[in-house]
Each structure stands twice: as structure tokens, then as C-alpha cells.
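Sequence in, structure out. Go.
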Amino acid sequence: MFIKKYIPKKISDIIGQYSGIVKFTNFIQRQSKKAAIIYGEPGVGKTLAVRVYASEREYELYEIPPSSTRNKVQIIERLRPASIQPSLFGGKKIILIDELESFSGTSDRGGITALIEIIKNTKYPIVITANDPWNSKYKTLRKYCELIKFDPVDYKSIEKYLGKVSKLEKIDVEPVVLKKIAARSQGDVRSALTDLEVLTKQKGKIRNEDIYDLFREREESIFYAIKITLKSFDATLALSTFSDVKVDSSEYSLWIDQNMHHEYLDPDALRNGYISLSDSDIFRNRISNNQNWNLAYYANVSATAGVQQAKNEVSQTISTYRRPEIMLKMFALSAKRKKARGISEQSSDRLHTSAKSLIRDFYPYFNFIKENNPKMGKELTKYLER
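Output:
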């Protein structure tokens, strides 16, 4: 696999994260705080940076991956001695907790408190990775950690990296293909590299039209899975097509919710279908609360086979399935929030207050001014960018 084959050997080889890596390096060397949270979207290199730095600088890396255990008591029992005992080889050590979200299930209310106590007494730097550390339950934890942001990698950097890999692999690929893969990756280097590898396995020469085939197949696969769920009775086939789509049951439930009422015209079938969707949601909530990932199977079955078997007959209508409207609204809202956070973080030093306060008290008025008085908005933006 390209992802494993082209793992960076040096910290300088990690693309698109110069600022974040400098801050991380300074944290390790100076340790003004005993812990740091590296946060950012999946695939931007958070965990990779810690591993490569430890390997290159000859640190022992004590790592707790998200899949090792979901029991917070056991994690704390492992962390406490690791944070105070010397390295096995008598040298330097970094403690890595990968994915804060999987560590801090809501059922274990003492988990974060215990982690803070370990941070207070640790003899070695603790690094925590997270997708979003701004949840209110991490408020106290953030006070003891240096926050280091890893931004989505610029698509031009990804495009250049893909070009380098293509040359090493001797892949005959049109430059426009690399540009489109990079743009669609949304800053996720792993995703872009995987897309390139998929195209390479399909054809010896990759041309512009091949990129459309790749993304069309992905779109078609989820529509096919929806069709199997809503227009067939084969539960095994419903589960297998769902597993091929590579989305979780929460997203799949949104697709079902958007389209089921067009297929299930019988009120009893529609009611039973929504009961199955509700069951899937209940299982996902239990997973979130208890971190019992064995329940994921039942969430998947409820969202697929459960919905499928809710009907007594298949509708004879020819349906055109649609994307979930709520997802489009969520993406739009997420983009607005990211924009607000970026502007607030950039302006916090200039306005001598925290980014959180600016998001709450300043940004709504700033946005209103930009929309209703463009001239004043430009002047205000110019002032903030000085």
C-alpha cells in the first residue's frame, strides 16, 4: 500500500504542516506545559508527526492507540506508571494518547479528571491527538495542555506530493488527474494517496476521464446499497452492499431517512422502518456512552436488514434517490463555523481577547457589517489583517 510504503522517515518530510510541526517541536524541547493536544481533521498528520519525531530524535514512544482498549480505568492504570517510570533504555520518552474522543466516553466521568492528575505529575511530555478539543467536557483539560492546530493540507502541496509518488512508482498519469484528486481530498493526504493507488491498480495509464469513473463509482455504490435495502428482501445482500459503501450507520441512516417514505407507501411498513432506524440510533448512543464497540454490528443490522424487513411488499414505483438534505445543511453550517473560528483565531491577538469570545461576541456583528456594508467590511478586514 502506498500509505505504508511512503510513510515519512523525517519530520521535515511531512507535507503541509510546517507551522504545527514547529509548535510541536518547541513544545517537546521547552515543555512550558506538561501536555499538548494536537488537533485537526483526520488525515492531516497528527499522529504521524509524533511517531516520526520520536523515531528521528530517538525518543521512546509509549503509545495508547484508540483501539487498544475502551476501558478508561485500564488506560489510567497503564498511563500512571508510564508517566513516571524511566524509559526502558534510560533515554527520552514521549507518551502519546491517540484520539481523545475515544478515550473520554461519557460513561466514565472520572476519566478526564484522572488524566489531568497524571498530567500534573508526569515526568515526560504527554501528547494527545483530537479532531475537535473544543467540547465543553475538555474545558479543564485544555488549561493543562498546549493546543497545537494542524490545518488541512493545501491541495497544491498534496498535488506536488502525488506527483512525486507517481514518478517514484513510474505511473503514467495526466497532471490534471493529480490536481483533481488533491482538490477532492479536502486536505486529507491519506485519502488522496489511496485514490491514486486505486486508479493505478485499475489501469496502467491514468487519464482525465478515469477520475470521473472513480468518483462516479463511489456515488453509485451508495445509491445501489439504498436500492437493495428498500427494494429487496435479501438481508445478507443488504449487509454486504452496506459494508462496501464505506460509510458508518449514522450517515447511512440519513440516506434511508431521506428516501424511505418514497418507497414505503404502507403506513405500517414506514412505521416499522423508522423503528429500525431508531434502534440503530439507540445502539450508536450506547456505543458513545459505554464505548462498547461490539454493539456496532447491531447498529448496522438495524439500519440495513431491519429497515429492509419492515416492508411486506416492494413498491413498483421507479424511484430516484436523493442525497440527505440535512447533510448539505450540516456541511454548510460546518463551513461557516470553520470560517468564523479562523477569523477569530487570526484576530484574537489584535483585539486582545480569546478566539472563543470573538466567535460569541464579535463575529456575528462582523459578518453582519460585511453583508450590509461591504465598504466598511473591507476596511475592518484590512485593519484586522495588519
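Check: The chain has a mean pLDDT of 81. Residues 98 and 330 are 26 Å apart (CA to CA).
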